[in-house]
Design brief:
- By secondary structure, the chain is mostly helical.
- It contains five helices and three strands, in the order αβααββαα.
- Strands 1-3-2 form a three-stranded antiparallel sheet.
- Helix 4 packs across helix 5.
């Protein structure tokens, strides 16, 4: 198949949000059980994409969140609290990033001879 027929294939390799991992592989990667991943979904931390056959698929971003939750749960934090903390941390990080971008000086595109 010519590469022009698959323009997005290479992009998906770098896409942190591409749902590339099956539940079994995702659980293996983060050192948890499929039940743990289901619990994270029930707690609202991650929402896996569903394949055409209805199987859960996880992205690298979701796996990072799940790994953070697993670490917190391993340290004794209840799963619901871990999910809430991670969600708040992510929202704070996003707000700080947006604030930094809005405070960044605008780049000058004019080439006036000042």
């Amino acid at each position: 198949m010519p590469s022009q027929d698959r323009p997005h294939a290479a992009d998906r390799l770098d896409d942190d949000n591409h749902p590339a991992y099956t539940m079994g592989r995702a659980a293996e990667v983060i050192g948890a059980t499929p039940g743990f991943l289901r619990a994270l979904g029930e707690a609202g931390l991650i929402t896996p994409t569903r394949s055409e056959g209805g199987h859960r698929r996880y992205s690298r971003h979701q796996l990072r969140l799940a790994a953070r939750a697993r670490d917190m749960v391993d340290q004794g934090t209840p799963i619901d609290a871990a999910c809430r903390i991670i969600g708040l941390e992510d929202r704070l990080e996003e707000a700080l990033r947006a604030n930094a971008e809005s405070n960044r000086p605008e780049e000058r595109t004019d080439s006036g001879g000042e």
